[in-house]
Design brief:
Elements: E1 27-28, H1 48-65, H2 70-74, E2 79-87, E3 93-100, H3 106-115, E4 123-125, E5 128-140, E6 154-157, E7 164-166, H4 167-172, E8 178-181, E9 187-188, E10 190-199, E11 202-208, H5 215-222, E12 228-238, E13 241-252
Parallel strand pairs: 1-5, 7-13
Antiparallel strand pairs: 2-3, 2-5, 4-5, 6-8, 8-9, 10-11, 10-12, 12-13
Amino acid sequence: MKKTTTILVILCLAYTLSAQLFDPVNVLTHADQMPYFPGCEIYENGSDDKRQCSNQHLIGYISTHLAYPKEAQDQAIEGVVYVSFIINEDGKATQPSILKDIGGGCGEAALTVIRQMPMWESGIHEGKKVAIKLNLPVQFYLKTVDANLAENYSISWGALNGGVVQYEALRQNIANTILVRDPLGSTHRVNELVFVLEKRKRTFDARDTKGQISKELIKVIDKTKKGGKLTITAAIQDSGKLIWVSRSFKVEG
């Protein structure tokens, strides 16, 4: 019986935060307007609605096209594969590569999905279309998941609001429980937590399988002292379905 593949539901792609050029061609890691996955043309460029729509469409695409390799299933291999790729000036996904693999054919499965991606809306910098290098974490998980439901849920953590947070505010918030709320406002117990930090072309991540803010997760928070993008992903059970919900913060040290 084929097991269900799940995607680490990152609401903002793991964009490297520093602007930089890669030789021999000019490839940026940050731009005035980052690329958008197709399907969100009705929203205004630069708006939060369009970015959220783009991320959700990307999640939906990967969740329906990513195949869990039989070798990985047979060996019960689970974890996160990190891939890198470039969205060129025309919006085509090119040069996919593996940054971190977990074996069992999972890395190649993630690359296959990247190679088959539809055309994106290209990134724009200083008024011109540019090539952008992106990093993306893809999680392989051997449990039944409904990724499409994630957009109906939200993460709340203490008094944190918006998408920008100070490092000290994160530290002060550690004692607060991370909650997931459904469309009716009811809270659900978090079964598992994953923290992913993107900082200066490096990725740090930790997981707690009890849904608690453990010492390992705190270590990831401590690495945000000098900035970065922190994404919190929580797994909950609702009506017999496993749902991953995410929220991202730009951390100012």
